[in-house]
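FORM 12-B: Structure-to-Sequence Request
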């Protein structure tokens, strides 16, 4: 089963500010989330419902699962 990953305009602007190699790693990780939305290294954020964190190097992606 394949899922849809949506990137907010704020997140897209933040990704554009990253170095090209980190951009590719973040975009690769986001693409992988379409196949596996909760990989083994995902962390649930405290105090939030259905919000998870995935790290790519020092960059964190916050995900909302609906």
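FORM 12-B RESPONSE
SEQUENCE OUT:
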């Amino acid at each position: 089963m394949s899922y849809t990953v949506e990137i907010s305009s704020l997140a897209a602007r933040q990704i554009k500010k990253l170095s090209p190699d980190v951009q590719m790693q973040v975009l690769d990780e986001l693409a992988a989330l379409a196949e596996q939305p909760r990989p083994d290294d995902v962390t649930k954020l405290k105090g939030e419902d259905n919000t998870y964190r995935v790290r790519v190097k020092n960059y964190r992606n916050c995900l909302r699962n609906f």
